[in-house]
Amino acid sequence: MRFSSVLALCGLVVTAAGVSAAETKVEVKNTHLCCNRCVQVVSQILQKVDGVTGKCDRNAGTIAITAKDKESAQKAIDALAEGGFTGTIDNKELTIKDDSGVTKGKVKSLTLTGIHNCCNACNQGINEALGKVKGVSGNTAKARSDTFEVTGDFDAKEVVKTLNAAGFHVKVKK
Predict the structure, then answer these.
(1) The sheet that has 52-57: what strands, in order across it?
(2) Which fold has domain 23-97?
């Protein structure tokens, strides 16, 4: 009887260790987090993902995610992208999917949607990023609007890549 109790206790310890071993931590870096509203929106997004907690460092532009498992961590990353946030990930098993729908080649106009643009500082970040893309001559981005048009004679893929590098996730409006 005593031997079986010891075995049962060992099994419980192994099971508990297995649960904690499945925990996944990931840091999303280079995310646009210019204001407290950005941080609040990220927190709201992560609260909706079961088994996930997160903490933003606004000054560093990072989001630290702790998830019960790899699948939950991926769901959190996907939810952040859906909310208009992106960045680089320090975990090779997880990815920010390219769901932008952008095609290669030069265009004169491109309508983008789904970007997080809660304030004038977000909008300024968008404008600064677009200003780095050769051939972009204008855009209609306005604070508190998640859809805008980019105009000029530019490579569409370069616009999306540059906005992503600035921490903004966008999709091409069809």
Answers:
(1) 52-57, 62-67, 24-29, 88-89
(2) Alpha-Beta Plaits (3.30.70)
